Amino acid sequence: MTSYQHSIRQRQYQFDSLKTLLAKATPERSGDALAGLIAASAEERVAAQWCLADVPLTTFLNEVVIPYETDEVTRLIIDSHDQAAFAPIRHLTVGGLREWLLDYRTDSQQLAAVAAGITPEMAAAVSKIMRNQDLIAVAKKCQVITRFRNTLGLAGRFSSRLQPNHPTDDPQGIAAAIFDGLLYGCGDAVIGINPATDSPQAMTSLLHLIDELRQRYAMPVQSCVLAHVTTALQVIELGAPVDLVFQSIAGTEAANRSFGIDLALLHEANQAARGLQRGTIGNNVMYFETGQGSALSANAHHGVDQQTCEARAYAVARAFEPLLLNTVVGFIGPEYLYDGKQITRAALEDHFCGKLLGLPMGCDACYTNHAEADQNDIDNLLVLLASAGCTYVMGVPGADDIMLNYQSSSYHDIRFVQTTLGLRPAPEFEAWLQQLGISDQAGRLIANERHRLLQSAAQLGAL
């Protein structure tokens, strides 16, 4: 392994590996402090960032942070690297890549063309030497479009997952929350339920509930019950109406093993869901969630900083061409992202890295009740993410998930962002909202449909 060094004034800082350099260059966060990876001072962090800026991009192909022989995610990253896509930026250093990305002449087409040539570690490295505004400016230029029953990721669009979780999976409670979200114009990314019970019976029941609603109102949306991938495979075999297959993923083989998955299992699920051919305009069928700190919490980080581990999870996602990917940025807790400032920075890093790698990146802008954060932090973060071209965020009743016990963004938060920044939902969904009389041609909500559709919610929940 190569040793790296940089001097500030008369003091020389030494970094014994690329893995160490990446960790020391990372903006401060509690998870890296917990793991003992953080820079000892602000000056050491700056020295690491200066040093990292001079590292050639080709170094990341020759010095891996987790051994190739022992980690299938590393093998995926190296074996799937596209040398032709990498060619236009091959000569650059990390600092040079930053300048190229920020250059106004570097447009969406050029960014899409090099995406397969950028490894997660390259993306993580360049993000570590970028300010928040840099992350926003570059992510805004990255356009990633996916399709199932509607089109996600188009310019000028800002979509939402409608998240009607219920602590007992009560059909009436879930149905009421779904209709409430629809009446706010939410749900175009997915109507996605975290089941209280991960079983084939519970998953099948919830899938039929959403599918009945979708067919009754001819809604151009997709659904997902966020059970484990093995449960999804079972219900596909039983003939349940599965649109998207969900799975939490991480950036190391060991962390994924702690989730009960590997790449072969994800491939099997992807093929099974595609085989159903339920999409009407596309066949992106996977929905992945990630989060900084997941590998560390499973003691499966191999001494790699949590943001670099997170970026490696995007290599896993990229291999399966998902419809949706989102970082659940503050969900794991303040042990990993301590306060609103760290959550905001992590969200912008994750969104930037995901979009740069060619992924349909969303974000659950959230926090747990014991974090040093509040809804004002989430308001700020939502505006920043939407300005950066984020594909979608979460719509949770009252921003309070009563089943998962954390704070997120609400239906009216999404309307605030769309209205304030002049953004619209997916075009097919927008047309449906207008056709049903939920919104007008200007995208403004119409109140007189609310009573009738909430009555329908109660009837549907009784099915």
From TrEMBL:
The reaction(s) catalysed by this protein are: ethanolamine = acetaldehyde + NH4(+)
Q: Which GO terms describe its cellular component?
A: cytosol; ethanolamine ammonia-lyase complex; ethanolamine degradation polyhedral organelle
**Is DNA-binding among this UniProt entry's keywords?**
no
GO-annotated biological processes: amino acid metabolic process; ethanolamine catabolic process
Q: Where does the record place a coiled coil?
A: none
- Chief place of localization: other
Localization annotation: Bacterial microcompartment
Q: Which residues bind adenosylcob(III)alamin?
A: P195, Q247, S297, M403
Q: In which pathway does it act?
A: Amine and polyamine degradation; ethanolamine degradation
Which Pfam families does the UniProt record give?
Answer: EutB
Name the cofactor(s) required for activity, per the record.
adenosylcob(III)alamin
Q: Which residues bind substrate?
A: R161, L162, Q163, N194, E289, D364
GO MF entries: cobalamin binding; ethanolamine ammonia-lyase activity
Self-association and partners: The basic unit is a heterodimer which dimerizes to form tetramers. The heterotetramers trimerize; 6 large subunits form a core ring with 6 small subunits projecting outwards.
Which PANTHER family does the record associate with it? ETHANOLAMINE AMMONIA-LYASE HEAVY CHAIN, ETHANOLAMINE AMMONIA-LYASE LARGE SUBUNIT
UniProt-recorded name of the protein: Ethanolamine ammonia-lyase large subunit
Q: What species is given as this protein's source? A: Herpetosiphon aurantiacus (strain ATCC 23779 / DSM 785 / 114-95)
